[in-house]
Recover the amino acids of this structure.
């Protein structure tokens, strides 16, 4: 039945304005300054940062937002 | 509610209340030899505040006192009341006089001048905080000391503020302040931070400063270093003392220290060519050599009775102290023997006796003014 | 040395508190008897009187470590730990330093136990991790410094048990977050378990959680990478469901 | 010059073993020894704290260590301390290394003396004196005696405020906590001087003025002056008010969202108020806290317009970086599984930090009955600027109550009982209770089990099985014999953070026998309905609970409204409506005022009445203290209390710690007024009974015990009064 479920938030909550500031060529420290450090890290693949975010309210899970940054050394090469 | 403790817990015991243990007093031995002093007259000048330190003042017209919110004048010989003037506020500083005026100060920061003969209020000047002491008037200037560590030079004619000086005061100090000493065209004042300072009487320009020693370690009580007692000038010398500190003989002009001696006295000093007299915190009365501060004799019969600073009689044969139990003692200056005792204000004394033309006047904590004559 | 002169002697000076003339030896024996028969409060009293009256002797040394044991049994873990630490400071070269380390580990190992544990045994895995790490290090010190001590085998056994239970509680938290649908939290917890608790049975659970969480977060590449690790190390456990 | 060490000789020892000394000498025989090492040796030997004096000398290649042992402390006694407990002093002394059995360090003792004297003076006891005496005992031991003269706290004789124009001194004096005591306030400690209290007063003064527009108000000087005998104190405060300012323009920079702009509670034209300004800042940070900006800051930039006394305010909002929680560590759980606390957490890992959900989590954990206290602290994660770990430190409270043995209860005579109730069964947070009781008038057994987290999201489920045989003949309620047994299942559904819906369904078989002293009501009922009934009982209730803890709450409320139905298909169809409410208000740190109340009404369906055995009773320790258990309300035909189908009761209480036993855990005293009664269908105000009294409640390891002494205020002559009452396991 429709009983109360506490809301679940997971991942980096970023609003569109800050995301739009990320440009190819920015350094890792600039990215951290703007977006904060990514919560999902993959040890095997240091050059790929994943920002994701979703929230589950009253049992309904929202559409998951994703932002993946490819780095070459210290500089962004691809954003999607 | 940090202050208010809950009645319930107090009712059922709560914290045991510690009780105050009064220090033990030595019994006063009987006076056998010929009594050298006798009481001329004694009057009650009004209901006084027990904690204030009011000095009696005398000039050729009358002897003046202050109690509660009233200043009063009394005939020097008969003790008859000449006039009474209420200031409407508690008097905490004074009484002093000069140039036809009588001065006093109130706890809400008012310095007041009254006509010495009629008692009429001549002027009232606002010095912001509680007045603790007033100097005599000289060269048209009267100096007032207030509780926030300030010294105010006022025009003695109209009370206009000529100059102001301030010394840093510690948060905790002993109540009371030394009466500023007017000497030729300068004024010397003692402060709560253990500093004696001299300023130009008319301009307030600092002339010199002496720092009596202060204790660094220990509790706040050990660190009290006020100079609240009498500043005594004798020729070119100045004698005074401070609590937990030193007694000092200095040059009054340059402020250079002649000699010092470890000594703790909040009551200050008395001096004549023969000796420097002072009462220490434990109630012992000392006579020191004015040249080098060496001890000549020490009278410890009045221990723990908190006697006031000594006052020399007219002929210098005796010094007179008054204690917290209301006794006035005559102590012979040669050997320090107590020769006579008279009981005055039962509430005891905060301020030293006043000698005027051979008569010793004492003003007690409940406003009793006593005139005594020594043979 | 001076201990031999510890014969019974009468204290006549009136200022000293009234002192019965019990010698250190008899106090120690009485304390041990109390301790053996479970009267720990009595034992503590005897040991501490001994320490007060005959400080800094061989008997005081014994009394101190044995009072620590009594405090431990009397369910006063904090006082026991203080006494043990004071013992190792006062007697660094005592013959019983290995026992002191072992006892220190035991106090933290059994913390929070109570008589009801017999009736309702308390599950050990998910309890306070800090105390368990402290116990682990005490036993480790015992093994490195006194490898041949008679307490070493039991300490080694307890260390293994502790290592596994620390890993297990880490993995349990990962499972808890899977159940709640906090897949990123579960993923990171699983990753932490794998990094910090190699060689414990919890690794397999953690790997499974990592796969399921990665799938829930639509990160197929991460899921397949982890799956390959499972195939390599736990070939027979490759089939598992993701319902928690 | 250095030499090879042939031997080390130690002399001057009487109690300490040479081994201990040698182990602290950082040099070994055979090593080359030179003068530089002497410093380290002396330092390390002093470091042991065992020696008063250490001297090194050399004879040929032999190092001679001459030590003088410190006396060991044989006895330590303290006299004269009244306001500081001896235990506090002995602990402090032990902290400083001064305790029986330890070597006597004279410097530490002198340091302790000075420190204690400073303590007393700091508390305003200016006449305090602390001194100590060391008397050598036999055999290298010393007796230490510390003599304390506490004196009294200095009393404030008068407080003078100067420089105030806008407000009369009397108004300002009322704001102060320190001041001379008025004659009738015998108990107050207002006149006891303390530095902290005075500082607090000065703050009160400035916030009083700053809340009324005096932006430039300042305390110019404040003096405290001691009387000659150091027993009394005068306080002089000199203030400078400055002008009164009004608010000019107000604008907010740093955020676009209008919701935030609405938060500003400072309006143009108003007199400037500092507390309103603080309120705005608090609103901002709590709002931003909800969205993970835990470190959001608002700084206010005032611009003064001196001519027409206005101040323009700009609220510059700095969001700061959003903070994320990496790991949550649970600490101190020695008996409870980590998940039992973690499932109460509303803040998750790998999610942004929300102050609101952390506070929510703290409250939920605090409310668990097996938790004494909980603290949640954040610690930054090394190497990141926007991540923190949360440490949840719990102090558990033993929640298993094991009752066994013989008891005496006033209503049921001698009572044998055996019971165990555990609301943290095996550390899983589940509740299990097993209890059996035997006495003349009753023998019962019940087993109940409940799992508050049957589902992950907090739906609870539990069972209850009971058997109860009562012989209500000798207590003063209607006489009959009844035995019943039954079982029920119950569920609870959370509707939000603080409220939930509870539902239970159960079956019960009861049979009633009349005795020769049974009243007509009973016999008529039996004749009409027979002796045996099978009942299907279901209850449905809504509960809202915002209390901060279940054991002795200090704030918050609990309301529950529900209905119990003998649903169709049972032999007797009836309904019972029940409301119970309680509210707690903190008066001071551990003094709480409590208001409780309850209304219950029951009736049968159609024209038959509520079965007599379902009646409500009143009187006794749980309803109206001072009256005998269940003795109130209408009587039945044979003069016993019949109970009623309408019950009303209310209590107002003030709870405070027992003064002398404040360190006994879980012990509270209370002063209370009770009111209530039961009625037959119509409420009758002047039938309500009142009583007042004092009570004592102790949450002992064996379960809650309560004792009360109450005086009925309007007892009728046929009421059964019982001033002293006690009970085990009363709810609170």
């Amino acid at each position: 039945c429709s009983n109360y479920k506490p809301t679940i938030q997971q991942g980096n909550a970023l609003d569109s304005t800050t995301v739009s500031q990320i440009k190819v060529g920015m350094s890792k420290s600039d990215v951290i300054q703007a977006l904060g450090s990514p919560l999902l890290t993959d040890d095997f693949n240091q050059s790929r940062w994943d920002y994701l975010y979703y929230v589950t309210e009253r049992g309904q899970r929202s559409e998951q937002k994703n932002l993946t940054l490819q780095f070459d050394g210290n500089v962004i090469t691809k954003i999607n | 509610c940090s202050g208010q403790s809950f009645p319930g817990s107090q009712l059922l015991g709560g914290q045991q209340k510690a009780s105050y243990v009064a220090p033990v007093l030595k019994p006063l031995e009987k006076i056998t030899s010929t009594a050298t002093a006798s009481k001329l007259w004694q009057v009650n000048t009004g209901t006084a505040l027990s904690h204030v330190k009011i000095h009696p003042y005398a000039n050729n017209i009358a002897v003046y006192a202050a109690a509660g919110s009233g200043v009063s004048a009394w005939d020097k010989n008969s003790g008859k009341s000449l006039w009474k003037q209420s200031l409407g506020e508690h008097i905490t500083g004074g009484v002093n006089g000069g140039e036809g005026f009588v001065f006093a100060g109130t706890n809400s920061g008012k310095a007041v001048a009254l006509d010495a003969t009629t008692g009429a209020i001549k002027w009232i000047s606002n010095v912001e905080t509680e007045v603790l002491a007033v100097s005599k008037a000289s060269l048209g200037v009267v100096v007032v000391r207030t509780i926030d560590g300030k010294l105010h030079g006022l025009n003695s004619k109209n009370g206009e503020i000529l100059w102001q000086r301030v010394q840093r005061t510690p948060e905790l100090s002993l109540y009371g302040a030394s009466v500023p000493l007017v000497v030729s065209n300068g004024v010397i004042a003692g402060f709560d931070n253990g500093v004696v300072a001299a300023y130009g009487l008319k301009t307030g320009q600092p002339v010199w400063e002496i720092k009596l020693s202060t204790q660094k370690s220990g509790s706040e009580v050990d660190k009290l270093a006020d100079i609240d007692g009498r500043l005594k000038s004798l020729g070119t010398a100045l004698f005074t003392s401070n609590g937990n500190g030193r007694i000092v003989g200095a040059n009054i002009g340059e402020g250079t220290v002649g000699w010092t001696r470890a000594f703790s006295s909040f009551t200050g000093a008395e001096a004549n060519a023969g000796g420097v007299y002072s009462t220490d915190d434990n109630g012992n009365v000392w006579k020191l050599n004015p040249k080098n501060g060496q001890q000549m004799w020490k009278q410890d019969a009045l221990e723990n009775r908190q006697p006031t600073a000594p006052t020399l009689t007219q002929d210098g044969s005796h010094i007179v102290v008054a204690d917290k139990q209301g006794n006035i003692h005559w102590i012979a200056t040669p050997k320090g023997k107590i020769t006579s005792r008279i009981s005055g204000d039962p509430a005891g004394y905060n301020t030293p006796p006043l000698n005027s033309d051979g008569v010793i006047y004492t003003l007690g904590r409940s406003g009793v003014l006593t005139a005594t004559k020594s043979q | 040395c001076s201990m031999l002169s510890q014969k019974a002697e009468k204290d006549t000076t009136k200022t000293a508190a009234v002192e019965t003339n019990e010698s250190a030896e008899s106090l120690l024996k009485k304390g041990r008897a109390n301790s053996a028969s479970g009267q720990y409060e009595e034992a503590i009293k005897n040991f501490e009187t001994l320490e007060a009256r005959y400080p800094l002797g061989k008997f005081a040394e014994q009394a101190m470590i044995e009072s620590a044991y009594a405090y431990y049994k009397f369910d006063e873990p904090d006082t026991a730990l203080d006494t043990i630490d004071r013992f190792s400071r006062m007697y660094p070269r005592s013959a019983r330093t290995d026992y002191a380390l072992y006892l220190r580990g035991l106090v933290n190992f059994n913390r929070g136990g109570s008589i009801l544990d017999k009736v309702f045994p308390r599950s050990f895995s998910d309890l306070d991790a800090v105390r368990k790490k402290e116990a682990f290090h005490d036993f480790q010190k015992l093994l490195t410094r006194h490898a041949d001590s008679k307490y070493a085998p039991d300490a080694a056994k307890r260390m293994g048990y502790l290592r596994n239970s620390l890993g297990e509680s880490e993995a349990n938290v990962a499972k808890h977050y899977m159940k709640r649908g906090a897949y990123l939290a579960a993923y990171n917890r699983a990753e932490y378990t794998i990094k910090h608790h190699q060689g414990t049975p919890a690794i397999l659970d953690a790997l499974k959680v990592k796969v399921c969480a990665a799938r829930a977060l639509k990160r197929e590449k991460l899921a397949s990478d982890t799956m390959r690790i499972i195939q390599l190390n736990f070939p027979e456990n490759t089939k598992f469901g993701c319902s928690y | 010059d250095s030499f090879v060490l042939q031997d080390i000789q130690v002399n001057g020892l009487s109690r300490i073993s040479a081994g201990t000394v040698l182990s602290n000498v950082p040099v070994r025989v055979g090593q080359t020894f030179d003068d530089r090492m002497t410093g380290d040796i002396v330092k390390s030997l002093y470091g042991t704290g065992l020696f008063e004096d250490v001297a090194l000398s050399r004879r040929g290649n032999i190092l001679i260590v001459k030590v003088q042992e410190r006396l060991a402390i044989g006895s330590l006694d303290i006299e004269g301390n009244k306001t500081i407990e001896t235990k506090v002093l002995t602990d402090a002394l032990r902290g400083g290394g001064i305790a029986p059995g330890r070597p006597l360090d004279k410097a530490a003792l002198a340091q302790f003396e000075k420190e204690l004297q400073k303590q007393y003076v700091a508390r305003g006891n200016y006449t305090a004196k602390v001194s100590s005496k060391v008397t050598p005992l036999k055999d290298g031991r010393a007796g230490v005696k510390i003599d304390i003269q506490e004196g009294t706290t200095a009393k404030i004789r008068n407080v003078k405020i100067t420089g105030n124009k806008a407000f009369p001194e009397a108004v300002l004096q009322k704001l102060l906590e320190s001041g001379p005591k008025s004659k009738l306030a015998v108990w107050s400690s207002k006149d006891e001087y303390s530095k902290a209290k005075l500082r607090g007063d000065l703050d009160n003064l400035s916030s009083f003025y700053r809340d009324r527009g005096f932006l430039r108000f300042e305390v110019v000087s404040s003096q405290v002056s001691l009387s000659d005998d150091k027993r009394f104190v005068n306080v002089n405060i000199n203030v400078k008010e400055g002008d009164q300012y009004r608010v000019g323009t107000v604008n907010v920079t740093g955020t676009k969202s209008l919701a935030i702009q609405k938060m500003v509670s400072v309006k143009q034209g108003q007199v400037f108020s500092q507390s309103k300004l603080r309120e705005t800042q608090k609103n901002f940070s709590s709002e931003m806290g909800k969205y993970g900006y835990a470190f959001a800051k608002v700084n206010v930039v005032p611009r003064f317009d001196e001519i027409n006394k206005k101040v323009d305010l700009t609220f510059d909002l700095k969001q700061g970086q959003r903070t994320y929680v990496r790991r949550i560590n649970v600490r101190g759980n020695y008996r409870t599984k980590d998940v039992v606390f973690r499932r109460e957490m509303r803040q998750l890992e790998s999610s942004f930090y929300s102050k609101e959900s952390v506070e929510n989590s703290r409250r939920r954990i605090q409310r668990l009955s097996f938790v004494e206290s909980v603290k949640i602290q954040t610690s930054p994660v090394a190497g990141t600027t926007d991540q923190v770990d949360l440490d949840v430190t719990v102090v558990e409270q033993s929640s298993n109550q094991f009752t066994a043995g013989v008891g005496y209860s006033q209503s049921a005579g001698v009572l044998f009982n055996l019971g165990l109730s555990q609301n943290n069964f095996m550390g899983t947070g589940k509740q299990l209770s097993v209890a059996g009781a035997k006495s003349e008038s009753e023998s019962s057994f019940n087993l109940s089990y409940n799992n508050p987290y049957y589902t992950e999201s907090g739906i609870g489920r539990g069972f209850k099985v009971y058997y109860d045989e009562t012989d209500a003949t000798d207590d003063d309620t209607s006489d009959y014999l009844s035995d019943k047994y039954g079982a029920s299942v119950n569920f609870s559904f959370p509707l939000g953070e603080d409220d939930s819906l509870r539902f239970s369904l159960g079956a019960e078989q009861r049979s009633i026998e009349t005795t020769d002293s049974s009243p007509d009501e009973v016999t008529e009922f039996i004749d009409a309905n027979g002796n045996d009934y099978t009942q299907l009982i279901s209850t449905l209730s809504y509960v809202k609970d915002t209390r901060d803890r279940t054991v002795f709450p200090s704030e918050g409320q609990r309301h529950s409204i529900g209905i119990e139905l003998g649903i169709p298909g049972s032999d007797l169809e009836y309904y019972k409506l029940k409301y119970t409410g309680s509210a707690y208000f903190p008066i001071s740190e551990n003094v709480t005022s409590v208001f409780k109340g309850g209304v219950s009404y029951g009736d049968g369906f159609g024209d038959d009445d509520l079965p007599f055995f379902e009646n409500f009773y009143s009187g006794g320790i749980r309803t109206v203290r001072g009256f005998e258990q269940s003795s109130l309300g209408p009587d039945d035909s044979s003069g016993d209390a019949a109970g009623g189908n309408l019950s009303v009761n209310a209590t107002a209480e003030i709870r405070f710690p027992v003064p002398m036993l404040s360190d006994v855990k879980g012990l509270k005293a209370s002063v209370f007024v009770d009111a209530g009664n039961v009625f037959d269908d119509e409420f009758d105000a002047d039938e309500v009974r009142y009583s007042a009294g004092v009570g004592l409640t102790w949450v002992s390891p064996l379960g809650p015990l309560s004792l009360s002494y109450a005086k009925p205020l309007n007892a009728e002559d046929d009421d059964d009064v019982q001033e002293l009452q006690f009970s085990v396991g009363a709810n609170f």
Chain D touches chain A at residues 291-292, 321-322, 324, 326, 346, 348, 350-352, 384-387, 457-459, 493-497, 501 (CB under 8 Å).
